[in-house]
Amino acid sequence: MRRLTLTLLAAACTALASAHAQSTTADPDAQSQKVQQAVDERIRLERRVAAATAPIKSLADLYAHLHDGTKGMAALEKLPADAQRIFISSLTFNEKGLTGFNFQILEDSLRVEEAYDLLSLFGFQHTVGLMPGLRADTNTDLLIQQAVGLPPRSGDAAKPNYEYKGYDDHSEYECIRPATGQSAGGRICTSNC
Asked: Backbone phi, then psi, for 184, in 5-degree steps?
């Protein structure tokens, strides 16, 4: 895993350097756009790797982890028992892995770090950036918020004061069939849809 991370980091640096070297034009907007495209591609690649290496890609994987008491399941145990049942019953999967889940139950029950840890089991920890209602009580919470592009809460959490690049993940939608989401409050439709 460490070798893969270093390889991805090297690829990202190469892409950024290439974008910078190719942008010898005097047009700063074109240069900025090329750099942003390289950054966006790196982020998408990191997210695909996270989903591909996640330990839980199906309900069968989830139940196996629950049954064998895997260490990572402590993240799920942070949810109250009723919230655990609601969250688990909201999970949807396809052959690629997690396609959707109820995020409101996470906002109601968890801090940023706890939601991040829980969603990392599925490879979708970055979707905490779509949940402005999560509590941020620790320095780690604030660090994660910054890393996913979610500024600290201010005022009404239902009206975020930022623009989050969800890329291929969509808040307030659910996956109904491949590449097709429909409006659904309180859900996130993932890039696996």
From this structure: -155, 110
Q: How is the beta sheet containing 97-102 ordered, strand by strand?
A: 92-94, 97-102, 180-189, 170-177
Least confident of 4-13, 73-82, 179-188: 4-13
Q: Would you call 99 helix, strand, or coil by DSSP?
A: strand
Buried b (16+ CB within 10 A) or exposed e, 95-124: ebbbbbbbbbbbbbbbbbbbbbbbbbbbbb
How far apart (Å, rounded) are the C-alpha atoms in residues 57 and 67?
16
Give residue 116's pLDDT: 95
pLDDT at residue 3, as a whole number: 45
Task: Give the pLDDT mean for 29-36.
Answer: 80
Are 150 and 161 in contact, with CB atoms under 8 Å apart? no
Structure tokens given for 47: 């997210």
For residue 63, pLDDT beyond 50: yes
Question: Where exactly are the structural domains of the chain?
Answer: 2-53, 59-189
Report the C-alpha gap between 79 and 81 in whole angstroms. Answer: 6
43: CB partners within 8 A, 6+ apart: 165, 167
